[in-house]
Amino acid sequence: MAKKKNITKKQNLKKKLGQTSASKKTEVSEPVSSGTEKAEDNLFAIEPIEDDLARVAAAVTELEGVESAKVPDEEIILSQANALSKIDELPKYGGDPLTGEELKQQLAKIVEGWHSMNGIDDLCVVLNMALQALHGMEAVKTTIGRLKLMARKGRYVTFKIPKKKKGEFRTIDAPCSELKNIQQALNFVLQEVYNPNAAAMGFVKGKSVVTNAQVHLGQNFVYNIDLKDFFPSITSGRVFKRLLVKPFCLNEKVASLISDLCCYQKGDNKVLPQGAPTSPTITNIICEKLDFKLTRLAKAYGLKYTRYADDITFSGMKNVFAEDGKFCTSLRNIIENEEGLKINSDKTRLCHRGMRQEVTGLTVNSKTNVSRKYIQQLRPLIHNWEVKGYDEAQAIFAKHYAETNIRNLRFKGEHHIENIISGKLMYLKMVKGETDSTYKSYANRFEKLCNETFGAGSQNPQTLLTPSMDDGKVLSVLNDLANLIETNTSE
User: Fold this and answer.
1) What whole-number percentage of the chain has pLDDT above 90?
2) Rounded to whole angstroms, how far apart are CA atoms 321 and 164?
3) Residue ranges of the alpha helices (H) in 164-310?
4) Contact 189, 126 (CB under 8 A)
5) What is the largest CA-CA distance in the chain?
6) Closest Cα partner for 374 from 228, 475, 483, 224?
């Protein structure tokens, strides 16, 4: 009876995955270890994602229906966000977090396991150690069968979010929660075993938009370039070939599986998705040769060079940036002809000292600083709270947030003004420093308001101003937080 029930579950899963041929059966039923587990235990590796795949398939169908309907952009975005939220309903992996010493030991095991890796079974062990490091020693583990299934049948939900420039949209390809967890573990491992080029500033431990901007302080000229369709321009074949050589030197089976886990089918090519946890780290790996060449080019012309994801910046005291000059000609040849990437000419800009020079959103004329608009967004939040009280200030903020922030519809729940203010102050502190007079003034006013509203010494939002994290983690968190809160307030 139990055997019949298992067969029925297999058949139902096959239907959801679109598998009908006998050849598929051996792939799904592949042993998940070196023969130590029973054949029927293989179902355990598949059943946890059955509902997840069905949910994502339903979300994709809903998205396709929304996109084909003739409705306003705002309604499309709202419907897309609602459909996308269905892939995040599965419970997150849990377990008690590791202590500092336990995490240190786990990281050492991960690095050792990676460098001694010979096959897919070894990769599975390394990823499971990463899952434990991320979620605790009781975290749910992955299996060889699950890795292969996600590499072959990992689902994505594609949706659009508005960019800051009105009328423009960014396409996001979000993996289903099962694949996302695997990608997070893989990304964790890659960041432990790979040290990117010194010029790479984005998605690197200990670096941020601030460290990127600081390189270009006090220069007469700042030249910014944006790469077009950055993630989709990197194919799975390119990722595969890069993993075969130093410093990875993986065998073909492991390199192929990793590239399949990190990429997905888009049109005729399998490419890096903009929305996968692994994509930024993979781009740093792929762009190592680009960073080396552009660093050498910059030194030849007495310039400074950094890259934050697809944002490239050069700066110097002399203007060598003529469109038809030797520098720009060499630059285009390296990026487009040698490395196969494309420059977005619409976002190429040259700023001299008399203008507002910006690098990754921060001004760099004399010191790294936020824009005036950022302060103008922060000021009324605190002022409304001081003058009108917390309840009315929160009501005003919530109304404005609901009307203007369709970009962040995925973030569920009620958004509180104190959390937004705290986040903006954290970012201000990161950029300007804790001794800056502007930061100290707003931080003191905010702390006073929190004490009056929530009680002196309460564990409410003021604790966010002094998080118990090291600087590297704070910078990483704040980079993401800054993007979230940038449009959450009005002037």
Assistant:
1) 60
2) 27
3) 177-193, 209-214, 236-244, 252-262, 279-286, 288-300
4) yes
5) 81
6) 483
